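Re: the 125-residue chain
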Amino acid sequence: MYGSGCVVMTDIVKLPFDATEIDDYNYLDILNQSTIEELVVNKNIDTIVHFSALLSAVGETNIPLALQVNCRGVENILQVAQKHKIKVFIPSTIGAFGPTTPKEKTPDLTVQCPTTIYGVSKVIF
């Protein structure tokens, strides 16, 4: 039950018609909760590893969109996961900490002072 045959990849980018090297790729807009749910049900997904985000460079130029993608997207994932009783893993990032956090031997409990909308959205969730 492990391996590439058990992974469903998604992105907002549509693959070119001739891209054949990817087994199970699906277009997915993280802001559309119904399509997330449809994919979870149709593919019998039991765990979501959530990476989608607008990173700092793009996010700083369109803060409302960054908040939608980075926060509403997580909310959509969590609501679908709760409804279908599936696991979710959402990794954090150094962007959540900011320049005052020690870069070496970073403590488990530390103040987070992000300086970008990407970092702020990671702290929120």
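The longest strand covers residues 9-11.
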